Amino acid sequence: MRYRFERIDPRLLEALASFRDQLALFQHLALRTSGDVEQALQWMRALQEQGYLPDDWDLDEFARRLEEEDLVRREGSVRRMTGRMERRIRSSSLEAIFGNLRSGAIGDHPTPHEGAGGREPLPERKPYEFGDDLGAIDFPDSIRNAVFRTGGNDVLPSEEDLSVAETEASSSCATAILIDVSHSMVLYGEDRITPAKQVALALSELILTRYRKDALDVVLFGDEATRVRVKDLPYVDAGPFHTNTQEGIRFARRILEHRHQANKQIFLITDGKPTVIRRSDGKLYRNTFGLDPIIVNRTLDEAVLCRRRRIPITTFMVASDPYLQKFIEQLTERNRGRAYFTSPDRLGNYLLLDFLRNRRRRVR
Questions:
Q1: Is the overall model pTM greater than 0.85, yes or no?
Q2: Domain that holds residue 220
Q3: Of 81, 103, 138, which residue is a domain's last?
Q4: What sign does the CA torsion over 92, 199, 63, 48 have?
Q5: What CATH number did the domain enclosing 346 receive?
Protein backbone atom coordinates (compact mmCIF):
# COMPACT_ATOMS: atom_id res chain seq x y z
CA MET A 1 0.00 0.00 0.00
CA ARG A 2 1.26 3.45 -0.93
CA TYR A 3 0.57 6.70 0.92
CA ARG A 4 0.66 10.11 -0.64
CA PHE A 5 1.15 13.09 1.64
CA GLU A 6 -0.10 16.35 0.19
CA ARG A 7 0.29 18.56 3.25
CA ILE A 8 2.33 18.44 6.43
CA ASP A 9 0.56 19.65 9.53
CA PRO A 10 2.72 22.55 10.82
CA ARG A 11 1.50 21.83 14.36
CA LEU A 12 3.07 18.36 14.13
CA LEU A 13 6.39 19.83 12.99
CA GLU A 14 6.23 22.36 15.81
CA ALA A 15 5.52 19.64 18.35
CA LEU A 16 8.43 17.53 17.08
CA ALA A 17 10.82 20.49 17.23
CA SER A 18 9.57 21.37 20.70
CA PHE A 19 10.18 17.83 21.96
CA ARG A 20 13.72 17.84 20.53
CA ASP A 21 14.48 21.13 22.29
CA GLN A 22 13.02 19.88 25.54
CA LEU A 23 14.95 16.61 25.28
CA ALA A 24 18.24 18.41 24.61
CA LEU A 25 17.75 20.57 27.70
CA PHE A 26 16.68 17.58 29.79
CA GLN A 27 19.77 15.60 28.77
CA HIS A 28 22.05 18.47 29.79
CA LEU A 29 20.31 18.83 33.13
CA ALA A 30 20.44 15.07 33.65
CA LEU A 31 24.23 15.28 33.36
CA ARG A 32 24.30 18.23 35.76
CA THR A 33 22.23 16.29 38.30
CA SER A 34 24.27 13.09 37.88
CA GLY A 35 21.35 11.24 36.33
CA ASP A 36 18.64 12.37 38.74
CA VAL A 37 15.53 12.41 36.52
CA GLU A 38 13.22 13.95 39.12
CA GLN A 39 15.59 16.81 39.89
CA ALA A 40 16.19 17.51 36.19
CA LEU A 41 12.41 17.78 35.61
CA GLN A 42 12.06 20.03 38.67
CA TRP A 43 14.77 22.32 37.31
CA MET A 44 12.93 22.52 33.98
CA ARG A 45 9.74 23.55 35.76
CA ALA A 46 11.63 26.12 37.83
CA LEU A 47 13.20 27.57 34.67
CA GLN A 48 9.75 27.83 33.08
CA GLU A 49 8.33 29.58 36.15
CA GLN A 50 11.18 32.10 36.00
CA GLY A 51 10.46 32.82 32.34
CA TYR A 52 13.52 31.13 30.84
CA LEU A 53 11.46 28.48 29.01
CA PRO A 54 8.42 29.04 26.76
CA ASP A 55 5.07 29.13 28.55
CA ASP A 56 3.55 26.79 25.97
CA TRP A 57 5.94 23.97 26.81
CA ASP A 58 3.80 21.25 28.37
CA LEU A 59 6.33 19.69 30.72
CA ASP A 60 3.84 17.15 32.07
CA GLU A 61 3.32 15.93 28.52
CA PHE A 62 7.09 15.92 28.01
CA ALA A 63 7.58 13.74 31.10
CA ARG A 64 4.91 11.38 29.78
CA ARG A 65 6.66 11.20 26.41
CA LEU A 66 9.92 10.29 28.12
CA GLU A 67 8.24 7.21 29.56
CA GLU A 68 6.38 6.46 26.34
CA GLU A 69 9.65 6.56 24.35
CA ASP A 70 11.29 4.30 26.97
CA LEU A 71 13.84 6.98 27.80
CA VAL A 72 12.95 6.94 31.47
CA ARG A 73 11.24 4.22 33.47
CA ARG A 74 9.44 4.17 36.79
CA GLU A 75 10.96 2.11 39.56
CA GLY A 76 8.45 2.41 42.35
CA SER A 77 7.77 6.10 42.86
CA VAL A 78 11.02 7.23 41.19
CA ARG A 79 11.78 7.62 37.50
CA ARG A 80 15.21 6.56 36.26
CA MET A 81 16.99 6.80 32.94
CA THR A 82 17.00 3.71 30.72
CA GLY A 83 19.87 2.33 28.66
CA ARG A 84 18.28 3.98 25.64
CA MET A 85 18.54 7.40 27.28
CA GLU A 86 22.15 6.72 28.28
CA ARG A 87 22.97 5.95 24.63
CA ARG A 88 21.16 9.10 23.48
CA ILE A 89 23.20 11.19 25.89
CA ARG A 90 26.43 9.71 24.50
CA SER A 91 25.28 10.35 20.95
CA SER A 92 24.17 13.90 21.75
CA SER A 93 27.48 14.61 23.50
CA LEU A 94 29.34 13.45 20.42
CA GLU A 95 27.23 15.69 18.20
CA ALA A 96 27.49 18.71 20.49
CA ILE A 97 31.24 18.54 20.99
CA PHE A 98 32.56 17.00 17.80
CA GLY A 99 29.89 17.89 15.23
CA ASN A 100 31.75 20.95 13.95
CA LEU A 101 34.71 18.75 12.99
CA ARG A 102 32.75 16.28 10.90
CA SER A 103 34.11 17.69 7.68
CA GLY A 104 37.53 16.33 8.55
CA ALA A 105 38.31 12.78 7.51
CA ILE A 106 38.02 10.37 10.40
CA GLY A 107 39.68 6.97 10.17
CA ASP A 108 41.62 4.48 12.23
CA HIS A 109 45.02 5.10 13.77
CA PRO A 110 47.57 5.36 10.92
CA THR A 111 51.19 4.30 11.28
CA PRO A 112 54.14 4.28 8.85
CA HIS A 113 54.03 0.48 8.85
CA GLU A 114 51.40 -2.21 8.46
CA GLY A 115 49.50 -2.53 11.70
CA ALA A 116 47.25 -5.09 13.29
CA GLY A 117 44.22 -3.18 12.07
CA GLY A 118 45.03 -3.74 8.36
CA ARG A 119 44.74 -1.05 5.68
CA GLU A 120 41.93 1.41 5.17
CA PRO A 121 41.05 2.86 1.71
CA LEU A 122 41.37 6.59 1.06
CA PRO A 123 39.34 8.63 -1.47
CA GLU A 124 42.44 9.26 -3.60
CA ARG A 125 43.32 7.05 -6.60
CA LYS A 126 46.65 6.34 -8.29
CA PRO A 127 47.79 4.39 -11.39
CA TYR A 128 48.40 0.70 -10.80
CA GLU A 129 52.00 -0.29 -10.15
CA PHE A 130 53.47 -3.79 -10.06
CA GLY A 131 53.14 -5.15 -6.53
CA ASP A 132 49.98 -3.21 -5.64
CA ASP A 133 47.22 -5.17 -3.92
CA LEU A 134 44.85 -6.45 -6.60
CA GLY A 135 42.00 -6.15 -4.15
CA ALA A 136 42.53 -2.37 -4.09
CA ILE A 137 41.80 -1.95 -7.83
CA ASP A 138 38.88 0.42 -8.43
CA PHE A 139 37.19 -1.28 -11.40
CA PRO A 140 34.56 1.41 -12.16
CA ASP A 141 37.32 4.02 -12.28
CA SER A 142 39.49 1.70 -14.39
CA ILE A 143 36.67 1.17 -16.91
CA ARG A 144 36.16 4.94 -17.14
CA ASN A 145 39.85 5.31 -17.92
CA ALA A 146 39.53 2.71 -20.70
CA VAL A 147 36.52 4.54 -22.18
CA PHE A 148 38.37 7.87 -22.18
CA ARG A 149 41.45 6.25 -23.75
CA THR A 150 39.63 4.37 -26.53
CA GLY A 151 36.70 6.68 -27.10
CA GLY A 152 34.30 3.92 -26.09
CA ASN A 153 35.28 1.47 -28.86
CA ASP A 154 36.97 -0.98 -26.53
CA VAL A 155 36.06 -0.82 -22.86
CA LEU A 156 38.27 -3.72 -21.79
CA PRO A 157 40.80 -2.06 -19.47
CA SER A 158 44.49 -2.60 -20.02
CA GLU A 159 47.15 -2.32 -17.35
CA GLU A 160 47.63 1.39 -18.07
CA ASP A 161 43.95 2.02 -17.28
CA LEU A 162 43.98 0.34 -13.89
CA SER A 163 43.29 2.64 -10.97
CA VAL A 164 44.11 1.69 -7.40
CA ALA A 165 42.69 3.13 -4.20
CA GLU A 166 45.39 4.60 -2.01
CA THR A 167 45.41 3.22 1.50
CA GLU A 168 46.82 3.93 4.89
CA ALA A 169 48.17 1.44 7.38
CA SER A 170 46.25 1.43 10.61
CA SER A 171 46.68 0.10 14.10
CA SER A 172 44.45 0.02 17.11
CA CYS A 173 44.79 2.21 20.19
CA ALA A 174 44.00 1.88 23.88
CA THR A 175 42.91 5.11 25.54
CA ALA A 176 42.39 5.85 29.21
CA ILE A 177 40.58 9.02 30.27
CA LEU A 178 41.41 10.21 33.77
CA ILE A 179 38.76 12.48 35.30
CA ASP A 180 39.44 14.46 38.44
CA VAL A 181 36.42 14.09 40.75
CA SER A 182 37.86 16.03 43.67
CA HIS A 183 35.73 18.68 45.36
CA SER A 184 37.40 21.52 43.46
CA MET A 185 35.69 20.37 40.26
CA VAL A 186 32.46 21.91 41.55
CA LEU A 187 33.84 24.76 43.64
CA TYR A 188 34.39 28.46 42.88
CA GLY A 189 31.08 28.86 41.07
CA GLU A 190 32.14 26.85 38.01
CA ASP A 191 30.89 23.40 37.06
CA ARG A 192 33.87 21.53 35.63
CA ILE A 193 32.73 17.97 36.23
CA THR A 194 29.84 18.12 33.72
CA PRO A 195 32.04 19.14 30.74
CA ALA A 196 34.56 16.47 31.77
CA LYS A 197 31.82 13.83 31.75
CA GLN A 198 30.44 15.09 28.46
CA VAL A 199 33.85 14.82 26.82
CA ALA A 200 34.29 11.27 28.11
CA LEU A 201 30.80 10.37 26.86
CA ALA A 202 31.49 11.85 23.43
CA LEU A 203 34.86 10.16 23.06
CA SER A 204 33.44 6.82 24.20
CA GLU A 205 30.66 7.08 21.61
CA LEU A 206 33.23 7.94 18.93
CA ILE A 207 35.30 4.88 19.79
CA LEU A 208 32.34 2.52 20.18
CA THR A 209 30.84 3.48 16.82
CA ARG A 210 33.87 4.27 14.62
CA TYR A 211 36.98 2.73 16.16
CA ARG A 212 35.76 -0.64 17.27
CA LYS A 213 39.26 -2.13 17.42
CA ASP A 214 40.20 0.47 20.02
CA ALA A 215 39.84 0.14 23.77
CA LEU A 216 38.58 2.88 26.08
CA ASP A 217 38.75 2.96 29.85
CA VAL A 218 37.49 5.78 32.06
CA VAL A 219 39.15 6.25 35.44
CA LEU A 220 37.95 8.57 38.20
CA PHE A 221 40.38 9.80 40.80
CA GLY A 222 39.89 11.65 44.05
CA ASP A 223 41.44 10.23 47.21
CA GLU A 224 41.60 6.94 45.31
CA ALA A 225 41.25 5.82 41.70
CA THR A 226 38.51 3.61 40.31
CA ARG A 227 37.32 2.53 36.89
CA VAL A 228 33.81 3.43 35.79
CA ARG A 229 31.76 1.81 33.04
CA VAL A 230 30.84 3.99 30.08
CA LYS A 231 27.13 3.41 30.77
CA ASP A 232 27.58 4.81 34.28
CA LEU A 233 29.27 8.06 33.22
CA PRO A 234 26.09 10.19 33.39
CA TYR A 235 25.79 9.34 37.08
CA VAL A 236 29.32 10.40 38.05
CA ASP A 237 29.64 13.34 40.42
CA ALA A 238 32.47 15.13 42.17
CA GLY A 239 32.74 14.35 45.85
CA PRO A 240 34.41 15.54 49.05
CA PHE A 241 37.75 14.20 47.84
CA HIS A 242 41.33 15.41 47.59
CA THR A 243 43.35 15.01 44.39
CA ASN A 244 45.41 11.83 44.10
CA THR A 245 46.85 12.33 40.62
CA GLN A 246 49.60 9.80 41.34
CA GLU A 247 47.16 6.96 41.91
CA GLY A 248 45.04 7.99 38.93
CA ILE A 249 48.00 7.80 36.55
CA ARG A 250 49.24 4.55 38.10
CA PHE A 251 45.79 2.97 37.86
CA ALA A 252 45.46 3.95 34.19
CA ARG A 253 48.98 2.76 33.38
CA ARG A 254 48.31 -0.68 34.83
CA ILE A 255 45.11 -0.98 32.83
CA LEU A 256 46.85 -0.02 29.60
CA GLU A 257 49.76 -2.38 30.22
CA HIS A 258 47.28 -5.27 29.93
CA ARG A 259 45.73 -3.97 26.70
CA HIS A 260 46.88 -5.63 23.45
CA GLN A 261 46.50 -2.51 21.29
CA ALA A 262 49.65 -1.25 19.56
CA ASN A 263 49.27 2.35 20.74
CA LYS A 264 48.41 3.51 24.24
CA GLN A 265 47.62 6.96 25.62
CA ILE A 266 46.26 8.73 28.69
CA PHE A 267 44.06 11.83 28.73
CA LEU A 268 44.19 13.59 32.09
CA ILE A 269 41.42 16.11 32.85
CA THR A 270 42.05 18.05 36.04
CA ASP A 271 41.73 21.51 37.54
CA GLY A 272 43.94 21.34 40.58
CA LYS A 273 47.19 20.40 42.18
CA PRO A 274 47.86 16.91 43.56
CA THR A 275 47.23 16.90 47.29
CA VAL A 276 47.37 13.19 48.13
CA ILE A 277 49.64 10.21 47.44
CA ARG A 278 49.58 6.63 48.60
CA ARG A 279 52.67 5.58 50.50
CA SER A 280 54.37 2.22 50.02
CA ASP A 281 52.64 0.96 53.19
CA GLY A 282 49.24 1.67 51.58
CA LYS A 283 48.39 4.67 53.77
CA LEU A 284 47.42 8.04 52.31
CA TYR A 285 49.61 11.08 52.82
CA ARG A 286 47.78 14.43 52.44
CA ASN A 287 48.86 18.03 52.27
CA THR A 288 46.45 20.60 50.87
CA PHE A 289 48.74 23.60 51.33
CA GLY A 290 50.85 24.61 48.35
CA LEU A 291 52.72 22.09 46.21
CA ASP A 292 54.12 19.52 48.61
CA PRO A 293 57.47 18.30 47.17
CA ILE A 294 56.85 14.73 48.35
CA ILE A 295 53.48 14.58 46.58
CA VAL A 296 54.78 16.34 43.48
CA ASN A 297 57.83 14.07 43.10
CA ARG A 298 55.84 10.87 43.54
CA THR A 299 53.36 12.07 40.94
CA LEU A 300 56.15 12.97 38.52
CA ASP A 301 57.65 9.50 39.07
CA GLU A 302 54.44 8.00 37.68
CA ALA A 303 54.72 10.23 34.61
CA VAL A 304 58.24 8.92 34.04
CA LEU A 305 57.06 5.31 34.35
CA CYS A 306 54.41 5.99 31.70
CA ARG A 307 57.09 7.43 29.40
CA ARG A 308 59.18 4.27 29.81
CA ARG A 309 56.13 2.20 28.90
CA ARG A 310 55.58 4.45 25.87
CA ILE A 311 52.30 5.79 27.23
CA PRO A 312 52.07 9.54 26.52
CA ILE A 313 49.96 11.68 28.84
CA THR A 314 47.96 14.57 27.43
CA THR A 315 46.81 16.87 30.21
CA PHE A 316 43.82 19.20 29.91
CA MET A 317 44.15 21.77 32.66
CA VAL A 318 40.88 23.60 33.32
CA ALA A 319 42.45 26.15 35.67
CA SER A 320 44.68 29.16 35.09
CA ASP A 321 46.76 29.42 38.29
CA PRO A 322 50.42 29.99 37.26
CA TYR A 323 51.88 27.75 39.97
CA LEU A 324 49.54 24.91 38.97
CA GLN A 325 50.51 25.35 35.34
CA LYS A 326 54.14 25.04 36.36
CA PHE A 327 53.43 21.63 37.90
CA ILE A 328 51.66 20.47 34.73
CA GLU A 329 54.60 21.69 32.65
CA GLN A 330 56.92 19.58 34.81
CA LEU A 331 54.68 16.53 34.45
CA THR A 332 54.51 17.02 30.68
CA GLU A 333 58.28 17.40 30.40
CA ARG A 334 58.95 14.22 32.41
CA ASN A 335 56.46 12.22 30.37
CA ARG A 336 57.28 13.92 27.03
CA GLY A 337 53.56 14.30 26.55
CA ARG A 338 51.38 17.31 25.81
CA ALA A 339 49.46 19.84 27.87
CA TYR A 340 46.56 22.18 27.11
CA PHE A 341 45.56 25.00 29.42
CA THR A 342 41.95 25.30 28.42
CA SER A 343 38.47 25.98 29.79
CA PRO A 344 35.48 23.67 30.28
CA ASP A 345 33.66 25.05 27.24
CA ARG A 346 36.61 24.36 24.90
CA LEU A 347 37.73 21.08 26.41
CA GLY A 348 35.95 18.85 23.89
CA ASN A 349 37.48 20.29 20.74
CA TYR A 350 40.97 20.22 22.21
CA LEU A 351 40.59 16.59 23.23
CA LEU A 352 39.29 15.43 19.87
CA LEU A 353 41.99 17.26 17.95
CA ASP A 354 44.62 15.59 20.09
CA PHE A 355 42.90 12.21 19.82
CA LEU A 356 43.03 12.41 16.02
CA ARG A 357 46.47 14.06 15.83
CA ASN A 358 48.36 10.96 14.76
CA ARG A 359 45.54 9.14 12.98
CA ARG A 360 45.77 10.59 9.47
CA ARG A 361 49.31 10.09 8.25
CA ARG A 362 49.06 8.64 4.76
CA VAL A 363 51.30 5.80 3.63
CA ARG A 364 51.40 3.69 0.46
A1: no
A2: 172-355
A3: 81
A4: negative
A5: 3.40.50.410
